[in-house]
């Protein structure tokens, strides 16, 4: 497996909110962001399949 890198820029306020939320979830910031993004991606795919009538 190869690792990929994504560079992101956030406002200071967004960065602080994400860091605080990650801390509350007891996760590091990278894991928190990746987990949230994957959960959203899975929902989008599932909703797309439902709207197209696919399972």
Would you give an account of this structure?
It is a single chain. This protein is mainly α. The chain has a domain at 27-55. It has helices at residues 12-24, 29-52. α1 (12-24) crosses α2 (29-52). It is elongated. The two termini are 28 Å apart. The model has no long low-confidence stretch (mean pLDDT 93).
Fold blueprint:
Blueprint: H1 12-24, H2 29-52
Helix pairs in contact: 1-2
Structure summarized in a few sentences:
The chain is mainly alpha-helical and 55 residues long. 67% of the residues lie in helices and 0% in strands.
Proportion of residues in helical segments: 55-70%
Overall average pLDDT: 93
Beta-strand content: under 5%
The poorly predicted ranges are none
Distance between the termini: 28 Å
Roughly how many Å is the radius of gyration? Answer: 15 Å
Summarize the main sheet. none
The overall strand count is: 0
Alpha-beta classification: mainly alpha
Total number of helices: 2
One letter per element, helices H and strands E, the order comes to HH
Shape label = elongated
């Amino acid at each position: 497996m190869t690792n990929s890198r994504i560079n992101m820029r956030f406002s200071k306020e967004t960065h602080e909110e994400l860091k605080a939320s990650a801390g509350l979830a007891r996760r590091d910031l990278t894991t928190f962001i990746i987990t949230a993004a994957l959960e959203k991606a899975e929902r989008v795919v599932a909703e797309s399949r439902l709207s197209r009538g696919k399972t």
